[in-house]
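Exercise 7.
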Amino acid sequence: MPREIKAAVALSVPFDLALSAQTLDAPGFWRWVYRTRFLRSLKRKSLAKLKKFPGAADAIGSGGHARCSSRRCAHRPHPRIRQRADYYAQSSSRSFVERVRVPLLLLSAADDPFIPAQCIPRPTNGSVTLEISAEGGHLGFVEGPPWRPRFYAERRTVEFSRST
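Solution. The predicted structure, written as tokens, is:
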């Protein structure tokens, strides 16, 4: 790791991609809204990348994000990864948390509609600080009244960065 990195903060991390994708694909209005927006954005970005790098699709196989209706097909595996389960297992960050050697603050919310609480690791590594708020949704973390909101994640990021 570069010496310049003194600390890090990660918000609402989908530590277990298979479980998070399964949750996102489950029924529910807000999941449908998020999934639809996510895939629309992903399709737009993918088409822009294909326009910029025309041969890229040939390297990963034919097909496309245009036909995706769930998040599972949004992740195009690397050719050396044979199964979706392998891709999710190799790309999930849960197993890497214990190896972090710089101060790391992980902020998650127990009520995140896309990242189930059971996929959040409980690190024993002294470099990692885990904070799970009861509420916060997916990247919400808003405190205070609507007419004067305060943003918990931003405040904690600054506090944590200054303390390391």
